[in-house]
Amino acid sequence: MLTIRSVLIIEDIADVAAWLQQQISVLFPQAKITTVASLLSAQRAIATTSVDLALVDLGLPDGDGAQLIPLIKAHQPAAICVVTTIFDDADHMLGAMRAGADGYLLKDEPETEFNAQLAGILAGRPPLSASIARALLQQFHPLGDEPLVTLTARETDILTLTAKGLSVKHAAELLGIRYHTAAGYLKDVYRKLQVNSRAEATIKAIRLGLVNSG
Length: 214
Hints:
Blueprint: E1 6-10, H1 14-27, E2 32-36, H2 39-48, E3 53-56, E4 59-60, E5 63-64, H3 68-75, E6 80-85, H4 90-99, E7 103-106, H5 111-122, H6 130-137, H7 153-163, H8 168-175, H9 179-193, H10 198-207
Parallel strand pairs: 1-2, 1-3, 3-6, 6-7
Antiparallel strand pairs: 4-5
Helix pairs in contact: 2-3, 7-8, 7-9, 7-10, 8-9, 9-10
């Protein structure tokens, strides 16, 4: 799992913010936690605070929290952005993924499940529960309407391994290639599939029959 020293929680409901702080304190006892409750305060925090992990609520009083994800990534490319929300519909999920979210967690999950999924994201295993996968699949056009996509053997290898939950680094080691080479293959996969996240790439590749879902 990544070393997390600084966490930014973006949540406007005080009780929920306190609950998220508690979960982070359990997972990362030494982490410095900053909590904000609006887009404006988040923007200020992003500009002045080092962030290893950001937990981003979507329904903020002054706008959509997904707007903050590209800003966080622009200021701190290595930051992990995880949406924490009550919205379980595909539109919100896909919007967050396209904005660059590294994970999507529902705040009403049981505590143990929430912590396990968050730990999985940080270990390179984006959670895709059955309900989320079904919702995502419903958003794709029928196969006959999809443009023809062809992946090279290496692109298929890297996508298959990362789809199974391996980090890019681990996948590169298994394939006997350098990390940057593997990351380049995954970037090419994103471009060909017209997606912006590993979770979305996995779902679309399975939908198109480019990788095996087993």
